[in-house]
Amino acid sequence: MDILTRRQVLTGSAALVALAGIRSARAQAAPTTAGPADPKLVEDLVAANRILVDQGVVDGYGHVSVRHDKAADRYLMSRSIAPELVTAADIMEYDLDSVPVDPRGRATYLERFIHGEIYRVRPDVRAIVHNHSPSVIPFGVTGAQLRPLYHMSAFLWPGVPVFEIRSAGGPGTDMLIRNPALGQALARTLGAGSVALMRGHGAVVVAGNLPEAVFRSVYTEVNARLQAQAMALGGPVTYLDPEEAKKAQASLAGTIPRPWELWKRKALAAGSK
Amino acid sequence: MDILTRRQVLTGSAALVALAGIRSARAQAAPTTAGPADPKLVEDLVAANRILVDQGVVDGYGHVSVRHDKAADRYLMSRSIAPELVTAADIMEYDLDSVPVDPRGRATYLERFIHGEIYRVRPDVRAIVHNHSPSVIPFGVTGAQLRPLYHMSAFLWPGVPVFEIRSAGGPGTDMLIRNPALGQALARTLGAGSVALMRGHGAVVVAGNLPEAVFRSVYTEVNARLQAQAMALGGPVTYLDPEEAKKAQASLAGTIPRPWELWKRKALAAGSK
Amino acid sequence: MDILTRRQVLTGSAALVALAGIRSARAQAAPTTAGPADPKLVEDLVAANRILVDQGVVDGYGHVSVRHDKAADRYLMSRSIAPELVTAADIMEYDLDSVPVDPRGRATYLERFIHGEIYRVRPDVRAIVHNHSPSVIPFGVTGAQLRPLYHMSAFLWPGVPVFEIRSAGGPGTDMLIRNPALGQALARTLGAGSVALMRGHGAVVVAGNLPEAVFRSVYTEVNARLQAQAMALGGPVTYLDPEEAKKAQASLAGTIPRPWELWKRKALAAGSK
Amino acid sequence: MDILTRRQVLTGSAALVALAGIRSARAQAAPTTAGPADPKLVEDLVAANRILVDQGVVDGYGHVSVRHDKAADRYLMSRSIAPELVTAADIMEYDLDSVPVDPRGRATYLERFIHGEIYRVRPDVRAIVHNHSPSVIPFGVTGAQLRPLYHMSAFLWPGVPVFEIRSAGGPGTDMLIRNPALGQALARTLGAGSVALMRGHGAVVVAGNLPEAVFRSVYTEVNARLQAQAMALGGPVTYLDPEEAKKAQASLAGTIPRPWELWKRKALAAGSK
Q: What is the pLDDT of residue A67?
C-alpha cells in the first residue's frame, strides 16, 4: 500500500464510470438469498448502527453494512431508516449489485451502491460505514489533508483520498452515489485504503470486520477534530510517520475489543429502553 | 430564484416600512377563528418545538409556527413560553396581522410579526422558525457569507441575506421585530429564500411544511459550524455550486421523513416523562 | 454609566486596598441574624446553583448569593460545597463583612468576600455569581475585549472590565479573593457594571435579582463563545451599539421569566432524583 | 523544582533506556502480594476510572492506578478493560516491574510500565493517570507549550515536557510504552513534574493521591482547551507567573475534596444503575 498523492486522490476515473453503467443494467432481477446470517452478526450490525450515533459519527443519516458470513457476494444492511432506530427486523440482504433479496416493499438506502461496489472489488473488506462525520466534512472541501495525528488513528497513514463526484458524474450531479457507476468510481478512489472522503458530502470507512469499521469511523472523526485544533495552534504539526503508523495500527488492532465491548453494552442497553 | 448579492442582502426597504405601519394599525379587533386545526398538525408543532431544543437550534428563546390547515390567513404558534415546555394546550391561533384569535389573557411572543408578515407574502411557506441558532449568529455580524458546504444544507444555495434592522427601523431599535413594519421589512429581506440572518439577533427559516422547516433549521446550524471549521483550515473552501445544490436539495427533500421520524419519536418520548 | 476604557478596567486601586484591611479586622464577632429568609428566595437560590451547573457556567467550583430579603446588610449563600450538591439546608447567612451568622462548624467559601464587598457598595445589586465560565476565561488573559454581539447579551454594553489582582494584591497572590481588601478592589473594578472578568481566574456577574444574575451569567458565557467564533471568521465584527444595547437590555429584562421558568423546573426535577 | 526548558523536555535519555532493559528481564516470576488493600482505596480507584470518563479525560482507552496503601512497591490497577466498566473485582495488584501478583488469566494493560516505572523513581507519587485527553493531544504534536492559564491548572507551572518516543525507542516504535525501558524513559522526561505529554499519543498525570491525580487530569484538559481558545483570540496570552502559580497550587490543593465529593457521588450513582 503506497502513500497516495493529493493528485491521485482527486482524480476519479471517468472512463471506468462509463463502463460501469453496463453492468448495473443487468441487475434488476431479485437475487436469491444466501440463507440466514449468523444472529450474532446481525446483533453486531444493529449495535454498530447505534454506536455510530452514540459516538457522533452519524445523525439521522448514514448507514453501515457487513458482508454476509455465508456468502461473499451478499451483504447485510438496514432498510432506509435512521441508524438510531435500526433493529434486527430491519436488516435486509443485498447482492453486490445492491439489489435487495427480499424487499417486501421496504425502502432501501439510495446510496447502497457505496457498499455493493466496494465489496465487489475489495475482498478484504467485510464492513463498511458511510457517514457525514462532522469534523471530517471540512477536510473534504479544503486543501487540508487528513493525516494521523496520534496512534489511535494510525490506520489513516496511507493517505485519505477525496472523491470528487464531478470527475465521475459530471458537473451536475445531486452529490449522491445513486447508481453502480458512481459507486464504482468511489471504490476506485478508495483504492486499497481504509477511508475516503467525499467532497461536499461525507466519508466512507472500510475494515475487515464490524468493530474495526466502527473503531475507524470513530477515530477518523476524533483525528479530524484534533488535527484542526493542532493546525490552529500554528507552526508545523508532527504526524505519525509511516513506519510508526503501520506498527501502531497493528498493535491497536488487537485492542479494539476493549472499546467495542463498552460501546456495544451501552448501545444495546439504550436500545432496550 | 437568483443568487442574492451581498448588497441586496443588506438593504432593507425603509420606504415600505413606513407604509407598513398603516396596515398594522387596523388590526386590533379580535379576529374570528378558522376552526380547530388538524390534531396531527398540532402534535407536529409541539414536536417541532422540542426537536429544535434537542438539536440545539433554540434554547429558552425562539419560536416555531405553522400555517393553519383550514385557512391560509391563519397560523398556529405557542403562547409565550420556552419551546421545551410547549404542549398542545399552549398552541394559539393568529391572523396574519399576528393578532391572537382567542387570547384569554395568555402572553404572546413579542416577535410574532415575523411569522404573520412572512405568511402574508409567501404563499408557498407553511412553517416558520425563528431562532438564535448559535453557530449561525457569527455569520450575521461579520462579512462572512453562509454558503452550502455539503448536500445536507443545499437549500442555502440561493444565498443567505442578512437583515440589518437599522435600515428598516433606524439606529435606535431594541433589535426586536416588535411590529408589523419590521416584520414586513424582514420578509422583504428574506425574499424568495429559505433562510435570512438577523444582524445581532438570530435567524428566520421558512419551508413548505414543519418537518422541512425543522430540517432546514438543524442543517443551517450544522452548516454554519462546519463552514467556520473549514474556513479555519485555511485556503479556499469548495462550496456546492448552484446546479449541484439545486439537484441535491430536490433529492434530499424526499428523505426528510427519515430524520423527522427519529426526532419526533425522541421528542415526544422525552415530553411524556 | 459610561463606557469603560481598557485602562480604567485594568487599574485596581491599591491605595483603597490598604485602607480596606482595617475594616475587615473588626469583623470577627459572630453577627446577629436578620431572621429567616423567604423560603421562595432560598428555593430560588438552590435552583440558581443547579441551573448554573446545567448551563455550563460553573463546574465543581463557583458560587451564587442573594441579598437577604429582610435585611440589606445580610446575604445568603451555600456552605462550601459544589454548586450541584447545594440544598436549602446548606444555605447560610452572612453579614457584609462576609462573617457567617451561624457557622456551626460549616466550611465557608474562601472567596465569600467577593459577595459581601459588592453588596456593600452596590445597593442596586441583589444577586451575585462568581464563576470560572469557560468561554469567558480567555477574554480575561488576552487583550480581546468582551463585547455584546447580540441582543441576548446586551447587558454587556457598558464594557467588561478585567480585574488584575496584581494591582490590588501585589505580584505574589494566590489569585484568590481571600480577604475584604481584595473584595473591595474587585468591587472597584466592577464599578457600576454588570460583569467583571478576573485575570487568570474567572468572572463576577451581578444583577437586581437571582433570575437576572443567572441569565447574565449564561449569556455572558454564550456571548464569549460566539464572539470568539465571530473573530475567527476574520474581518470586523459588528457589535451592538450602545443605544441599541440599552434598549435591547430593557426589552429583554422583561422576558427573563421565560427561560427562568424552564431552567428552574428542570433544575429542581433533576435535584429531586 | 525548576522550570523545564523546551529542550530538556524533548530529550529522553537513550543511555538510561539501554541500562533499564536489564532490570526488566529479571522480573518474570510472579511476585508475592502485599495483602488486601484498603477497600476505601479500591472504591476510590473504581470511582476514579468512572470520573475520568464522565469528565471526558478518557474514552474506551486510558488507565488510572494507585500505589498500594500497605506496600510502596506495589500498585493497584484494573485488568485491561474500558475504564467505564471497571468494578472492584477488576482491580489487580502489580509490583514495580509491572508484573501482576495474581493474574488468573486476566489481560493486563500493555502500557502498565508507565505506572510501575514512575512509582519506582517518584516516591512522592501515589496515583497516576494515563490518558488520551483530547484537548491535550494537539499540544503534544506542535511547538505550542501547555502553560497554566488560570488558577485551577496552576500545577502546570513547572512546565509540561513532551516525551518523544523516538529518542528512547528509535524511529520505528508502535508509539506504545510496551516495556520497562520505555517506561523509564518516560519517567525521566516527567522528572519532578506533574504532567508529561507523549507525542502522538497522550499524557501522563501524577499526584500524591487519587483525587489530586483526577483533579489534575481534568484541569489539564480544561486548560488545554482554554489555552487554545485564548491563543486563537490573537495577541499575547498572560499566563500565571511562577510565584502566583505556586501559591495558587497550594491554595487549590486544599479545595480538591469539593469537586471530588461531587464527582465520586455521581460516578458511583451512575455505576450502580
A: 98
Contact yes or no for A149 and D134 at CB 8 A = no
Structure confidence by residue, pLDDT tens digits, C199-225: 999 999 999 999 999 999 999 999 999
Q: In angstroms, what separates the C-alpha of B163 from chain C's closest C-alpha?
A: 13
pLDDT in tens, A136-169: 999 999 999 999 999 999 999 999 999 999 999 9
pLDDT of residue C271: 61
Q: Please state the ipTM of this predicted complex.
A: 0.89
Tell me the three cell numbers of residue A13: 476515473
Distances in whole angstroms, Cα of residue B101 to Cα of each of B25, B79, B94, C158: 17, 12, 6, 41
- Concerning whether D164 is annotated as a catalytic residue, the answer is no
Cell numbers placing A147: 493525516
The model carries a pTM of: 0.91
Please state, in angstroms and rounded to a whole number, the distance separating the CA atoms of residues A250 and D172: 13
For residue D162, which residues of chain A lie inside 8 Å, CB to CB?
A: none
H or E element, residue A237: none
Q: Tell whether D141 lies on the interface with A, counting CB pairs under 8 A.
A: yes
Lowest mean pLDDT among A75-84, A262-271, C40-49: A262-271
How far is residue D151's CA from residue D154's CA, in Å, rounded to a whole number? 5
CB-CB neighbors (< 8 A) of C199 in chain D:
238
CA separation for the pair C226, B242 (Å, rounded): 29
The answer to whether residue B241 neighbours chain A at the CB level (below 8 Å) is yes
Segments of chain B with pLDDT less than 50: 1-27, 273
The pLDDT of residue B30? 85
Q: State pLDDT tens for residues C177-206.
A: 999 999 999 999 999 999 999 999 999 999
| Helix runs in chain A, H state only | 6-10, 14-25, 39-54, 113-121, 137-140, 165-169, 180-190, 210-232, 242-253, 257-271
Pairing, β B127-131 against β B162-163: unpaired
The whole-angstrom separation of Cα D91 and Cα D69 is: 14
**DSSP label at residue A34:** -
Q: Assess D265–C contact: CB distance below 8 Å, yes or no.
A: yes
> How far is B227 from chain A, CA to nearest CA, in Å?
7
Residue tagged 469567558 (cell numbers)? C136
How many CA atoms are closer than 13 Å to the CA of A99, on its beta-carbon side?
A: 13
Nearest to A238 among D82, D178, D199 (CB): D199
Q: DSSP assignment of A150-216, as one string?
A: SGGGGGGTT---EE-HHHHH-TT--SS--SHHHHHHHHHHHTT-SEEEETTTEEEEEESSHHHHHHH
Contact D154, A248 (CB under 8 A): no
Cα–Cα distance between B229 and A135 in angstroms, integer? 8
The pLDDT of residue C235: 83
Q: Which chains touch B (3 or more CB pairs under 8 A)?
A: A, C
pLDDT of amino acid C28:
57
Cβ atoms < 10 Å from Cβ of C7: 7
Which residues are C64's β-sheet partners?
C129
Residue C4: the pLDDT is: 38
Beta carbons of B80 and B129 less than 8 angstroms apart:
no
**What is the Cα Rg of chain A in Å?**
18
The sign of the CA dihedral A92, A95, A97, A100 is: negative
Q: Return mean pLDDT, chain D.
A: 91
Model confidence over A227-242: pLDDT tens digits?
999 999 998 999 999 9
Nearest Cα neighbor of C145 from C193, C104, C102 is C193
Please check whether residue C175 touches D, CB under 8 A: yes
Tell me the three-class secondary structure of C80-127, residue by residue.
Answer: CCCHHHCCHHHEEEEECCCCECCCCCCCCCCCCHHHHHHHHHCCCCCE
Question: How far, in Å, CA of A76 to CA of A96, rounded?
Answer: 11
